[in-house]
Amino acid sequence: xxxxxSIVIMREAVEALHLKGKKILHVEGNxxxxxxxxxxxxxxxxxxxxxxxxxxxxxxxxxxxLMMFGTYRINERKETTPRLSLQFKDAELxxxxxxxxxLEGTADENYDWSRDIMSEHWKPxxxxxxxxxxxxxFACDALLQQDIFSGSGNIIKNEVLFMTKIHxxxxxxxxxxxxxxxxxKQTRDYSFDFLKWKKEYTLSKHWLAYNQKICPRCDxxxxxxxxxxxxxxxxxxxxxxxxxx
Length: 245
Description:
This protein folds into 2 domains: 4-111, MutM-like, N-terminal (N-terminal domain of MutM-like DNA repair proteins); 114-236, Helicase, Ruva Protein, domain 3, CATH 1.10.8. A hairpin with a 3-residue loop joins strand 3 and strand 4 (60-65). It has 6 helices and 10 strands. The protein is of the alpha+beta class. The protein has helices at residues 4-15, 107-110, 124-132, 139-142, 154-163, 177-200; strands spanning 26-28, 45-49, 52-56, 60-65, 71-74, 84-87, 92-96, 99-104, 223-227, 232-236. Strands 1-6-7-5 form a 4-stranded antiparallel β-sheet, with no helix packed on it. The chain has a 4-stranded antiparallel β-sheet with strand order 2-3-4-8, covered by helices on one side.
């Protein structure tokens, strides 16, 4: 599943087409939405929130969520039928195997930007307050909660927990305040490192824990388990990542 930084790359690529003020001239695809509503609409903005890619119009917002296996093409097509295709005078956007929804109202009315780990409006104090509302939650689950860390995914989760030396099955309410704040800060910091490395095509070269076999700190095998209620893959070191329970 693409994480927040990958959606920022997608957004920036579409922004480069300068579609603001441009009309949609043709719409097709097998998405179960009112496609006619999109026809001849002018784009007012291109935005992203966490893992959501947004095409904004005057009174509503088109939301694209790539889910686990979604893809997109700009000015080209795959052989398969797109979930949604938007065609402009000089550009074309095609989305595949994704969730497509029309949201009533503007993006600002639908989204709280302070929860987006890559937004300029991100508020770490608010994230801390939300975490304190869930003291019994596992750390591995907390970092995947989109209403707290919008844009954080399994790569970010694993890398942040390793860098802050927190075991994935640590209980939020038992983690020392300073370590919890470090986890929040590192989530945002790593997201921008992720973005930089992804653009350089070097992301996997920087992984310390995710998909790795040996702990770079302890030089012993990392454990791999499906942890927490989310049952997503966790890579961790029992020696240097403390389990707060």
